[in-house]
Write the structure tokens for this entry.
Amino acid sequence: MTAILSASELMSELAAPRPPVLLDVRWQLGGPDQRPAYEAGHLPGAVYVDLDRELAGPPGAGGRHPLPDPEAFGAVMRRAGVRAGEPVVVYDGGQGWAAARAWWLLRWTGHPAVRVLDGGLAAWTAAGGAVTAHAPTPDEGDFKPNPGALGLLDADEAAALARSGLLLDARAGERYRGEVEPIDRVGGHIPGAVSAPTTENVGPGGLFRPAGELRARFAELGASGDTEVGVYCGSGVSGAHEVLALAVAGIPAALYAGSWSQWSSDPERPVATGPNP
């Protein structure tokens, strides 16, 4: 199963006898709660999932968006109607970061059939897809998390991978270089990490670049066939989008979920600045 699908493909699947479960994961970094936007209009049958409250644990030593407790996450997914053997499609407003976070969590906890709507709600409406204000009440699902299906790094493992393999920094280039840092304690990057802004994985309309283009991009950054790859970002959200882009390109990658928000909070951790790893 591919990691993404188009709006037209989703329309066809929703018209089938057993349509996928839909999760609306709209979210804005530092922005307002997106539940009112969901209530105003969403894909028919979609259930809203809150990233800050349900796809992350409380901020703290693990970073701004630490991974949620697996059992708590499983309860959220079951309430949304997620079942172990049935496909799930997640979407957000179009940026793709929040949808990728939900995709990564479901895949990491063992769900085998999860995809992201390429381009999100914007692509859906542009293709003529209908929206509704009706909130569904799905039957309880049976999904039980079994973490470990995707690679996960802690800080020490991320540091080691930056030396032995390829650690990609998915943040904007100016944050990687340490020129600006609007959120965290200090600017810069993990020594040895390579700048790879996730914004360069998409083209017009927020749609992913073709798989061949993504493979070429990551090859230029050092992702050869035998290279172990890891990704981090600010707090484990846009990094999940880069892991998704790598999956589209056919390249497995691990996520350092604590990311820069965790790394930079520890004054004992080294910090590099400038354009070079």
About this structure: The two ends are 35 Å apart (CA to CA). The first strand starts at residue 4 and ends at 5. Residues 7 and 123 are 6 Å apart (CA to CA).
